[in-house]
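Input sequence (340 aa), recorded before submission:
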Amino acid sequence: MITLPLVWLVSVLTTIAAFALAQDTRLPFPARLFLCSFLLALAIVSLLLGFRLSFDANWAARVQPLVAVMVAPLAYFGFNALTKDAEPKWQKTLLVHGMPVALAQVAILVNVPVSADVFVLVFTSIYLFRTARLLPCNADDFVHVAPHALRILRSAVYATTILLGMIVASDLLIVAASAFAGDAFIVTFLTGVSGVFTAFVFVVALAGVPMLLRGSKSNLAGSEEPTDSDRSMLAAIDALMNEKHIYTDSNLTLARVARRLSVPVRDVSMAINRMTGENFSRYINGFRIRHAQNALRETDLPITEVMFDAGFVSKSNFNTEFRRITGQTPSQFRSDKADI
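Predicted structure, token format:
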């Protein structure tokens, strides 16, 4: 009777999670690409670890570091893509930061006199630190995440940080064992690590599914009930935007709006969140997109000029927000209006 490795349960769970995430078009494409790749990389590492421990597959031991070295960078860039309001093109990010990973993979393939686990340890440590730095970010820093989903996102960042920390600790012990103990100890250690790894992912899945379901329900039902103060505050903010058109300032911040109204920053943020279900950046982008729609409808200005006039500085962010709000690209919108 063939017994399947327990660690393969991680492969199943992470593959299902990647498939579900790929269907969520509310997230920008770069975030989905990196986060789905991160989950699939975890699935592959778990699959290879199962072959390595249960079937003594030497080829799996050689391939595993090639995939493992990509896990932490993919996780970081996936979450980081949700914080960028004026992000550079994701292709450039992939090229610049993917090059060191590719060089590390080449070094592993050509058998340089350095343990492959050292490369995994270095990259995982670097991107563990970067991922942990995202934890203090608030709703207005995560510009592509609705306020009601922030708790889910922050829980995902926490879980990923803990997971990467476990990988770093494991790799440190593996590097030490390879220097002082030997292969027998490493195999025994990996067997224990795989069990802990599987248990952690399983517990995260059990806690995460109900949280996702609650997030979906809150999305339908709305966030906290707005107060009369929230309604008055939003009316004042709307008046400021419609009369002064300050949303066209690409450097506009929540703090600057609060100063214009002589109220605390938190009051402005909470009023927008509770009244609209969106964060400050999405709220401001709504005004900017409506401004751009009018310009595209009533003028012959180039789309790039319309973008700058509306307050955007990034073409990718402009296109993403325009499609999110209107369901069309700026070019399609102008073309449709011209045909009417």
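Checked by second reader. The chain has two domains: 8-221, 228-339.
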